[in-house]
Amino acid sequence: MTPMEQRELGRTGRDVSVVGLGTWQLGGDWGEVREADAFDVLDAAVESGVTFFDTADVYGDGRSEQLIGRYLKERPDAGVLVATKMGRRVEQVPESYVLDNFRAWNDRSRSNLGVDTLDLVQLHCPPTAVYSSDAVYDALDTLVAEERIAAYGVSVETCAEALTAIARPGVASVQIILNPLRLKPLEEVLPAALAAGVGIIARVPLASGLLSGKYTEDTVFAPEDHRTYNRHGESFDQGETFSGVDYATGVAAAAEFAALAPQGATPAQTALRWIIQQPGVTSVIPGARSVEQARANAAAAAAAAAPLPRKTLDAVRDLYDRRIRAAVHGRW
């Protein structure tokens, strides 16, 4: 297996690779993925040095967890930390976030993954009030005490939610959208997490593929792909699809970003390298639907990949300020 830089994932006390693997796509929400292809992607990621998988109990109604569980049963030597999420299987009201439900969701995820204790469980973008509930954190502490979970964190939609969670002493990690089209977390969230010793997991790093530079305004996505059915937030938070950026605006910004890629690096690798360089980031979790994508994503963390120069970092900021800030800055 190819070695990759490891960073401590906040209060879990465990190290994970700076490039992980997001597995939403393995559940089928980005179009159909055959089981054999999913195993090939997982294998390519591990062989490329990835030691961190991120999933959720609702990805393919548990299919993503099940695939990971079966794969890791065959690869006990992989040394992968698996983070899953819970909370999106019920009506999204604060009253749903109680210990009995946590135990039920936890039982299902442990069964899907084939483990007694889950490495890391994250609340899956719950209602904002949940982040301030003492009872919720007491319930999560109970799951730790019962050895159902080793650690817990949160996945958030807004910077305000992230800051609320970071202030809680039991929160090990915060997962948040961060990429060159979503810079707001740099202002307060990353510094606060760094100071508190909370891990930052950067999701939607390629803005749902926009930052790969492969899409145009004429690109058509499959009907079952969230980039078709959730483009305007019809099914869940709009920020999860194209980082909440209007598609035409995002395509134009992505084309400009692609021109910033250093020689020998793809636009996607450049976006991942930009995220890895941000102080406070623990791991970035791009998805991959093919072996080639998994290997290319992991290559962004290779020791030979030089940090992006200051002029590139400044150009990313300028691009965001000119094309994106007015459209999304106040929303997340």
Could you characterize the architecture of this molecule?
It is a single chain. With 332 residues, this protein is of the alpha/beta class. It has helices spanning 35-47, 63-74, 99-113, 134-145, 159-166, 189-196, 226-229, 247-258, 267-277, 291-299, 310-328; strands at 6-8, 15-17, 21-22, 52-54, 81-86, 120-124, 152-155, 171-177, 199-203, 283-284. The strands form two sheets. Strands 3-4-5-6-7-8-9-10 form an eight-stranded parallel β-sheet.
Mean pLDDT: 93
SSE ordering: EEEHEHEHEHEHEHEHHHEHH
Shape: globular
Strand percentage: 5-15%
List unreliable stretches of 5+ residues. none
Q: What is the end-to-end distance?
A: 38 Å
Number of strands: 10
Range of helix content: 25-40%
Largest sheet: 8 strands, parallel
Number of helices: 11
Radius of gyration: 18 Å
Query: Strand pairing plus helix content: what structural class?
Result: alpha/beta
**Main sheet: strand order:** 3-4-5-6-7-8-9-10
Question: Layout of helices and strands, plus pairs?
Answer:
Elements: E1 6-8, E2 15-17, E3 21-22, H1 35-47, E4 52-54, H2 63-74, E5 81-86, H3 99-113, E6 120-124, H4 134-145, E7 152-155, H5 159-166, E8 171-177, H6 189-196, E9 199-203, H7 226-229, H8 247-258, H9 267-277, E10 283-284, H10 291-299, H11 310-328
Parallel strand pairs: 3-4, 4-5, 5-6, 6-7, 7-8, 8-9, 9-10
Antiparallel strand pairs: 1-2
Helix pairs in contact: 1-10, 2-3, 5-6, 8-11
A few lines on this structure:
By secondary structure, the chain is an alpha/beta fold.
